[in-house]
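Annex B. Sample input.
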Amino acid sequence: MTVPPPVITRAAEGNDELAAIKANRRRAINCCALPGLGVGAIVGLVLVLIGLPVIGAAALVLLTVGISLWLWRMAPGAVLRGVGAVPSGEWDHPRMHNLVDGLCATMGLPRPEIWVVDSPIPNAMTLGRDPRTSVLVVTSGLDQALTLVELEGVLAHELVHIKRHDTVIAGVAVVATVPWAMVGGKSKGLSTVHQLIGRGREFSADQRAAEVVRYPAGVGSALVAMVDQAPSAVVWPPGTGRIAFLTRWLWIDPLVGGAHGETMEGNLDDTRVRAAALSLR
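Annex B, continued. Sample output.
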């Protein structure tokens, strides 16, 4: 007797999406709280040792809450500034704006702001504390390098991140990791960001995007084009400083120019692995 394949219902997809949203928000809250807790604990301990236990306890609470809220609010803006992104007007990139409008209507999402980074490398990422404050960041090379079908696939991939609240942890993970990267080095910083945002999140977003777009093959084709067309001589990620450097795993194609010591063996977020997986759908 042949056993039929399992049927994935809309209810099951909704449950998976809800679980992803809860997990992302939980990781983001923890990521915001830990730096504040660390600073608060040090200051509080010093105050206790000099004979001010009540003030020490108050300092612990206030610093933990204050630093957590500061990190939560400023992280997306810090990443945008770090990579040198600027707002895109509708008439600057009409094809992209039209595609985003259509996909948002299909996916039931509020329209994100679109910001552009001046780079010939085709790439994109998303940031934001929730879907209503989300920002879609694209490189100037993305619109130029891809066909309409491929561009739709990339934009759908990024909107999936917004839908699943992947953006909530993205900026926070980068900014919170900066002190660790200063101490442990850039490679450890990159690995930490990848771990915080969730390994395999790009692979998962590809699979979901292929179910949203009109031409599912466009997602895999876009990944292949991005790998093939990335100029090897161009510095990546864009921008300067540690914040820009640590954004590598936020981009849809994280492997431009190599991953600076990050091993790719068994990595589902390797762009080439994801393209091969989509070709088997």
